[in-house]
Write a structure and sequence with these properties.
The chain has 188 residues and is α/β, with parallel strands linked by helices. The protein has a single domain, classed as Bordetella uptake gene, domain 1 (D-Maltodextrin-Binding Protein, domain 2, 3-Layer(aba) Sandwich). The protein is 38% helix and 13% strand. It has seven helices and five strands; from the N terminus they run H-H-E-H-E-H-E-H-E-H-H-E. It has a five-stranded mixed β-sheet with strand order 2-1-3-5-4, sandwiched between helices. Helix 3 links the parallel strand 1 and strand 2. It is elongated and about 65 Å long. The two termini are 23 Å apart. The relative contact order is 0.18.
Length: 188
């Protein structure tokens, strides 16, 4: 999850954002901070945002509110975040879904993953895990792919995000590890 160093980095970023405007430098944070979370309550991204929010609230005595806006692979929350004032009180808990996968899965997305955001820090890294029912006669990804090729159209899979979908559809018989998988905030 979030380690002490990552938490402190986030606090430093929030403080630096406040000092960017002389009018708010003395009082930051003077009101609640909103975390825009592009996935449902209870998701890994939501849990990470809540843990970070708890730490910030304890340190600053200001509430941190999670604004969960699931849907469209994170595009709904990302669009809502872009519309907020750039005053340091809005944070998008971005993921590799919102900032890497979507631009390759959609013909057009309503934001530029680089130009429209100011990255702050990496918060967490996660992995992809493939799970099959015990009655499926496979023990490896290679065996699963071979079974799927022998039985076209019979096997299905589910995924919780663009990231897991892309990982599931990679044209390879060996699993791949993405060193950049995880969540990172962008502040407005």
């Amino acid at each position: 999850m979030l380690n002490r160093r990552g938490f402190l980095q986030c606090l430093i970023v929030f403080a630096a954002a406040a000092h960017a405007s002389a009018a708010t430098a003395q009082d930051y944070p003077a009101k609640s901070i909103t975390f825009y979370v592009p996935f449902a309550a209870g998701s890994a991204t939501d849990a990470l945002a809540r843990a970070l929010g708890h730490g910030i609230t304890a340190e600053t005595k200001q509430n941190v509110v999670n604004d969960n806006r699931p849907g469209a692979n994170g595009i709904i929350a990302t669009q809502a975040f872009i519309r907020t004032p750039a005053d340091g009180y809005s944070v998008l808990i971005a993921t590799n879904t919102t900032h890497a996968a979507n631009e390759h899965l959609y013909k057009k997305i309503p934001y530029d993953p680089v130009r429209d955001f100011t990255p702050v820090t990496a918060l967490a890294r996660g992995g992809q895990v493939m799970i099959v029912h015990p009655r499926v006669p496979v023990k490896t990804v290679k065996e699963f792919i071979a079974l799927a090729k022998r039985q076209p159209g019979k096997l299905t899979f589910g995924s919780g995000s663009s990231s897991s979908r892309v990982a599931s559809e990679l044209p390879s018989s060996t699993p791949r590890v993405s060193p950049g998988a995880g969540s990172a905030p962008a502040v407005r």
